[in-house]
Amino acid sequence: MWLNGTSAANKVVTNALLTRGDLVLFDRNNHKSNHHGALIQAGATPVYLEASRNPFGFIGGIDAHCFK
């Protein structure tokens, strides 16, 4: 059970799974706790993916061309 909030939980998980130099696929729309936990604390290297936007400007999923 986790009682410290999702930001702290994100940092715990990223620190448990990542080590310095690991590549991490990142949507630029990630929560800042993911950036802090994975990039700053764990020392992982980001590979930023392009998120799509719908006609109203809302950010959607990652387009398939990003994975080719």
List its traits.
4 strands, two-stranded antiparallel ribbon, alpha+beta, flat, 68 residues
- Mean pLDDT comes to 83
Count of domains: 1
Order of helices and strands: HEHEEE
Report the sheet with the most strands, covering strand number, pairing sense and barrel closure.
2 strands, parallel
Please give the alpha-carbon distance between the first and last residues: 38 Å
Q: Helical element count?
A: 2
Shape: flat
What ranges have pLDDT less than 50 throughout 5 or more consecutive residues?
Answer: none
| Class by alpha and beta content | alpha+beta
Task: Give the radius of gyration.
Answer: 14 Å
Strand content: 25-35%
What is the total tally of β strands? 4
Write up what this structure looks like.
One of its GO terms (biological process) is amino acid metabolic process. This is Ornithine decarboxylase. GO terms for molecular function: ornithine decarboxylase activity; pyridoxal phosphate binding. This protein has one domain (1-51). Strand 3 and strand 4 (59-62) form a beta hairpin. The longest helix is centred in the N-terminal third of the chain and has 12 residues, at 6-17. The protein is of the alpha+beta class and 68 residues long. The model has no long low-confidence stretch (mean pLDDT 83). The strands form 2 sheets. A two-stranded parallel sheet has the order 1-2. Strands 3-4 form a two-stranded antiparallel ribbon. The chain is built from 2 helices and 4 strands, in the order H-E-H-E-E-E. The protein starts with 5 loop residues before the first helix and ends in a 6-residue tail after the last strand. Helices cover 32% and strands 25% of the residues. It has helices at 6-17, 32-41; strands at residues 23-27, 45-49, 51-53, 59-62.
